[in-house]
């Protein structure tokens, strides 16, 4: 069968790479894909854009099902249009995707269904927001309520920074339409983890746990980004805590969506804060797999992803089982200079082609592309074409060894002004070795 993946980032590269491993899958088309998917066996990029053209393509190619990677096509109603055309597609409808499209909807939904989350207030008026900040004090969190590519969250340790954040979003329109409304939220302390599941509208299949690293610089400093690295599994989620998350967060969300007439089908990502006393609080819902969490999670998945998605589309996820590599996977994002505000483009990447050739003969690392392109005169010469350029993902018998393996590979790749953190996985390593 032939499949279609929508998107151009590292998450979509990983999804397509895993799907094509199935002996039942002949080819995976990626729209639009990147230079990595262009060089991956069994994958083919297509430059089609626009919902009508994608529907025509899926129909003409007899695509068995489509998988939506990023959030923007969900917000544009891609799933609704495909379903209306009688096509199978894995992802939530636009109405169900409000859990990510609108942070104010998500917060109200969580309160309606007793899902634990931080106290909050919403504002469209800057003066009222400033007054609220003065009443609440700092530290405090300010979020653009709309889609901001993972960058619309500002953790303000001081009142001055909080007031600046309000002006930046509501007055200077730093996040455009995503910042027409803001959420001001209680600051929570603890450990952030990612909990991603597959949903079929009624049943849930948990994927491997993971932990993301949002800040640009080592030690969790610098601005928030779309994610600078991740690893799986995380030691912070014990079996007991895993059951608690399902009980307090995931099942209430899925049942709540169904009760409100918007059954949820697709990947659901819960960004969670775990306190020292194992209290769980939802920081955000995403209606897709995370990036870069997808890369290490799928490196560990031994089951046939295409079969799991088919079971989700058939409403039989309660019968699905997953098999995971016992090893730890860790992914390091290599970003362009100037990321996240003004990433450079067009810098030649060296060392990548040789590693991509080698990865085909081993199973312990893979380099997933995000912001890459091929030069016109050489189909093996890669250049930077976006903020997050690559995610170097490697396996190891434990977290420390996975970290060492990934950094050994990443150090062989070079491009001007590249930026990467040097401590991905350090939370988990500290936890393991101090326990």
Automatic annotation (TrEMBL):
Top EC category: ligase
Record keywords: ATP-binding, Ligase, Magnesium, Manganese, Metal-binding, Nucleotide-binding, Purine biosynthesis
InterPro entries: ATP-grasp, ATP_grasp_subdomain_1, PreATP-grasp_dom_sf, PRibGlycinamid_synth_ATP-grasp, PRibGlycinamide_synth, PRibGlycinamide_synth_C-dom, PRibGlycinamide_synth_C_sf, PRibGlycinamide_synth_N
Gene Ontology MF, one: ATP binding
Pfam family membership, one: GARS_C
EC number: 6.3.4.13
Residue stretches making up the ATP-grasp domain: 107-314
Catalytic activity: 5-phospho-beta-D-ribosylamine + glycine + ATP = N(1)-(5-phospho-beta-D-ribosyl)glycinamide + ADP + phosphate + H(+)
PROSITE patterns for this protein: ATP_GRASP
Cofactor(s) listed: Mg(2+); Mn(2+)
Gene Ontology terms describing biological process: 'de novo' IMP biosynthetic process; purine nucleobase biosynthetic process
Pathway field: Purine metabolism; IMP biosynthesis via de novo pathway; N(1)-(5-phospho-D-ribosyl)glycinamide from 5-phospho-alpha-D-ribose 1-diphosphate: step 2/2
Family: Belongs to the GARS family.
Cross-referenced NCBIfam families: purD
UniProt protein name: Phosphoribosylamine--glycine ligase
Organism name: Nitrosomonas marina
Gene from which this protein is expressed: purD
């Amino acid at each position: 069968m032939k499949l279609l993946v929508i998107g151009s980032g590292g998450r979509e590269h990983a999804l397509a790479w895993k799907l094509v491993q199935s002996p039942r899958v002949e080819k995976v088309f990626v729209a639009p894909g990147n230079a990595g998917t262009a060089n991956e066996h069994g994958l083919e990029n297509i430059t089609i854009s626009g919902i009508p053209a994608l529907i025509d393509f899926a129909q003409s190619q007899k695509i068995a099902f489509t998988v939506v990677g990023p959030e923007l096509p969900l917000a544009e109603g891609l799933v609704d249009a495909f379903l209306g055309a009688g096509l199978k597609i894995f992802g939530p409808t636009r109405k169900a995707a409000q859990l990510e499209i609108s942070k104010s909807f998500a917060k109200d939904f969580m309160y309606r269904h007793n899902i634990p989350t931080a106290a909050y207030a919403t504002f469209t008026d800057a003066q009222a927001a400033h007054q609220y900040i003065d009443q609440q004090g700092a530290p405090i969190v300010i979020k653009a309520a709309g889609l901001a590519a993972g960058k619309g969250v500002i953790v303000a340790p001081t009142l001055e920074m909080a007031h600046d954040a309000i002006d930046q979003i509501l007055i200077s329109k730093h996040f455009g339409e995503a910042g027409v409304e803001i959420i001001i939220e209680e600051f929570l302390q603890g450990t952030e983890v990612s909990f991603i599941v597959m949903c079929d509208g009624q049943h849930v299949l948990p994927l491997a746990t993971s932990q993301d690293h949002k800040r640009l610089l080592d030690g969790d400093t610098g601005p928030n980004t779309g994610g600078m690295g991740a690893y799986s599994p995380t030691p912070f989620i014990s079996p007991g805590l895993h059951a608690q998350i399902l009980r307090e967060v995931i099942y209430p969300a899925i049942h709540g969506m169904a009760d409100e007439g918007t059954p949820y089908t697709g990947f659901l990502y819960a960004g969670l804060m775990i306190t020292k006393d194992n209290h769980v609080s939802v920081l955000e819902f995403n209606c897709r797999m995370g990036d870069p969490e997808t890369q290490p999670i799928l490196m560990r998945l031994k089951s046939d992803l295409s079969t799991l998605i088919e079971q989700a589309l058939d409403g039989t996820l309660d019968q699905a089982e997953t098999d995971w590599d016992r090893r730890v996977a860790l992914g390091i994002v290599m970003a362009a200079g100037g990321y996240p505000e003004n990433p450079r483009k067009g810098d030649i990447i060296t060392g990548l082609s040789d590693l991509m050739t080698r990865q085909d003969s081993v199973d312990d690392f893979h380099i997933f592309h995000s912001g890459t392109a091929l030069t016109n005169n050489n189909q093996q010469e890669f250049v930077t074409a976006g903020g997050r350029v690559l995610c170097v993902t490697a396996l190891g018998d434990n977290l420390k060894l996975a970290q060492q393996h990934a950094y050994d590979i990443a150090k062989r790749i070079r491009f001007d002004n590249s930026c990467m953190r040097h401590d991905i996985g350090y939370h988990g390593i500290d936890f393991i070795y101090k326990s």
